Amino acid sequence: MGGIINTGFEDKQTNEFVEWFADKTIEQLISLFNEEQPKKGWVSARGRFLSALREAFLKSGVDCCSFISDKSMSLNHQIGLEINVIVQIPES
Predict the structure, then answer these.
(1) pLDDT, tens digit, 9 for 90 and up, residues 65-88
(2) Are strands 78-82 and 72-74 parallel, antiparallel or unpaired?
(3) Are 78 and 89 in contact (CB under 8 A)?
(4) What is the CA radius of gyration of the chain?
(5) Residue 63: what are its φ and ψ, rounded to 5°?
(6) What are phi and psi of 12, to 5 degrees?
(7) 73 phi and psi angles, rounded to 5 deg
(8) CA 16 to CA 88: how far, in whole Å?
(9) What do you get for the CA distance between the two ends of the chain, in Å?
(10) 3 and 73 in contact (C-beta within 8 Å)?
(11) Of 65, 62, 36, 34, which Cα lies nearest the Cα of 49?
């Protein structure tokens, strides 16, 4: 499925989704991710959405290392929460 790579370009622009994600719970963020994960289409708004979603996960304080690295976020699998750790859920 792939993922997104953070190039830093969005730092020079206002991302309208950052503020929208600010008051979401971790469960809501996971739900939004899982709704978006299987989609294959790509437009610039989706890139901004996913970049802001990645930032919201990183700010949550929950361990996201199973699908987020220093500069990217994997969209290969759905995710779930297990005791303050987000894990990828492989397809059965």
Answers:
(1) 999 999 899 999 999 999 999 999
(2) unpaired
(3) yes
(4) 12
(5) -65, 115
(6) -90, -5
(7) -140, 125
(8) 27
(9) 16
(10) yes
(11) 36
Separation of alpha carbons 79 and 88, rounded Å: 4
What is this structure's pTM?
0.86
Concatenated DSSP letters for 31-88? HHHHHHTT-----HHHHHHHHHHHHHHHHTTSB-TTTB-SSEEE-SSEEEEETTEEEE
Tokens of 66: 């199973």
- The residue with tokens 């699908």 is 67
Beta pairing partners, 57: none
Closest listed residue to residue 10, CA positions, set 59, 45, 56: 45
How far apart are the C-alpha atoms of 77 and 42, rounded to whole Å? 17
The pLDDT value recorded for residue 30 is 98
